[in-house]
Design goal:
15 helices; eight-stranded parallel beta sheet; TIM Barrel; two-stranded antiparallel sheet; single chain; alpha/beta; binds 2,5-dideoxy-2,5-imino-D-glucitol; binds manganese (II) ion; 46% helix; 9% strand; 388 residues
Length: 388
């Protein structure tokens, strides 16, 4: 198994959240099955499996009721553990979803005090991340939503969310932290409906912000696949808009609760297209696995889970290279490109539009030739299945 070819290296930039390898296996129908590990022990585990970095919510590292001196000691110990193990902290985030105070939302809550507290908590989480030189700040609005739309007008919720983000962007500038904010969408769970349910919804919202240049997205595989969408298409749109600031990799059966399964363990073909896209465009950000091991596992199983995430990514990266260099695939792609060379619509001009209006198109001839996509997809499957 370990022939070295798919062994993670720092340049792969594989990261995990403390909450992922530290997940103790509780679910809505059962209590924890794994003992609690400290942040220092989790950093040691990540170093052992070959990860590049670790991420945290504020309270994954510093308990919400910690005193200033306790916070100081925790930060000191964690910094030492990261330094001793060569583990970076590329991303930080804030937990605005666990405490009862956020039961009606955080930035969109009806109680203005809750909104103010959520902004305060986020600023403090930004301060904490900055102590570790984190460059990306993820915001997942897990509680920003409703069970009943009787509670508030949706456009009012959007305005409140914008007000808090504009404020936090100003704080980022005032503190000279240089964070890129990455907004993470999810359609539902824990709320019956979460505002901004998809990455596309966030891309539209970002354009309405005062400091939109500071704000991008953090698409998650499971969250796009829950409603049956294509994760790669969401990522491609974010990339094309210059807004792919981070990514959460895992896997998911469409139409089910958020499963956060090991990367590539459910939908290898979709995972392959995603890895191929990221590698083809030269995405230089973190490959963050926001996933956790099965409830059946002990910590040796958790390590296998983490190794499996990274190994599968590297296997698909290798398959993408084979696909790009496959002779017959290249020849079919070249044929396809032939029909894309001329007759471009291009930029509008009055004269050009008159020419286009006068142009003759033989739509029967254009529809007459097969496009060889069956062969192209079969060859893709054979690359994936290792028979080619
Ligand atoms: C859930 O997918 C969310 C939270 O775990 C966290 O806020 C974010 C960070 O990647 N993902
Ligand atoms: Mn998730
Ligand atoms: Mn996530």
């Amino acid at each position: 198994m370990n022939n070295g070819r798919y062994t993670p290296k720092p340049e792969d930039k594989f990261t995990f959240g403390l909450w992922t390898v530290g997940n103790r296996g509780a679910d809505p129908f059962g209590t924890q099955v794994r003992e609690k590990k400290s942040p220092v022990e989790l950093v040691e585990l990540l170093a052992e499996v070959g990860a590049y970095g670790v991420n945290f919510h504020d309270n994954d590292l510093v308990p919400i009721d910690a005193t200033a001196s306790e916070r100081e000691a925790i930060v000191k110990d964690f910094k030492k553990a990261c330094d001793d193990n060569g583990i970076k902290v590329p991303m930080a985030t804030v937990n605005l979803f666990y405490e009862p105070v956020f039961r009606d939302g955080a930035f969109t809550a009806n109680d203005a005090r809750v909104r103010a507290y959520a902004v305060q908590k986020t600023m403090r989480a930004m301060d904490l991340g900055a102590e570790f030189d984190a460059e990306t700040f993820v915001l997942w609005g897990g509680r920003e939503g409703v069970e009943t739309d009787a509670c508030r007008r949706t456009d009012e919720a959007i305005k409140r969310f914008r007000e808090c983000l504009n404020y936090l962007c100003e704080y980022n500038a005032a503190q000279n932290y240089g964070y890129q904010f990455a907004l993470e969408a999810k359609p539902n769970e824990p709320r019956a409906d979460i505002y901004f349910p998809t990455t596309g919804a966030y891309l539209a919202f970002i354009e309405t912000l005062e400091h939109k240049e500071m704000v991008g997205v953090n698409p998650e595989v499971a969250h796009e696949q829950m409603p049956g969408l294509s994760m790669m298409h969401a990522v491609a749109q974010a990339w094309e808009a210059g807004k792919l600031f981070h990514i959460d990799l895992n896997d998911q059966y469409p139409g089910r609760y958020d499963q956060d399964l090991r990367f590539g363990s459910v939908s290898p073909k979709q995972s392959f297209w995603l890895v191929k896209f990221l590698e083809d465009v030269g995405y230089s950000g973190m490959r963050h696995f926001d996933a956790h091991a099965y409830r059946t596992e002990d910590y040796e199983g958790v390590k296998e889970f983490a190794r499996g995430c990274m190994r599968t990514y590297l296997i698909f990266k290798d398959k993408a290279e084979r696909w790009n260099n496959h002779e017959e695939i290249r020849s079919i792609l070249a044929e396809i490109e032939e029909t894309n060379k001329d007759n471009k619509v291009g930029k509008f001009s009055p004269e050009g539009s008159q020419n286009l209006l006068a142009a003759e198109f033989d739509r029967v001839e254009m529809a007459s030739k097969g496009l060889k996509y069956e062969r192209l997809d079969q060859l893709t499957m054979e690359v994936l299945l290792g028979v080619d």
